[in-house]
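Students often ask why we bother encoding 3D structure as a string. The short answer is that it lets us treat folding as translation between two languages. Here is a chain of 167 residues written in the first language.
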Amino acid sequence: MNIKEKTKLEKVLFTMSILGLIAMFIYVMLIWSELPETIPRHFNFKGEPDGFGGKGFILVLPFTALGIFILTTLLSQIPDAFNYPYNVTEEQKQRLYVHWRICLSWLQTQMIYFFLYGVWRTAQVAFGKADGLGIYALSLFLVVVLGTTIYFAVRGKRMYKEEQKTR
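And here it is in the second language, the structure alphabet:
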């Protein structure tokens, strides 16, 4: 299968992801000297800090986001990594590949910005300017990520069914 060129949307989402990563690392560099030695490293379901560690923990978030970025970027370059119905034509496979690549781009960008929020909010808690992540942070994350996944799964199934009718 030929690897199709990225769509405009994918290019925008890729750029947004890069900018989010850069912002995360720059923010950590800017606040590093001001961070107290002990910061929150875990939050409960209500968004309240319930685990603490050294300030170096704040580096886990940007490096995890970078790892997710690298992994999803590499995965999006491998057409056979996506699970297609067994009886698709090469043309259908191309369209479904682009469809799932766009889904992965959305998920990548969403996760990076949630990590960026997590870095910022962790620092705010460490500085005593906030009590936690906020009660809606986990719920919002789950709704956005699961909503995106469900949307693209339903859309992909519709695409496949419509193309089966035209065959």
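Translate back mentally: Residues 90-126 form the longest helix (37 residues). Keep this in mind for the problem set.
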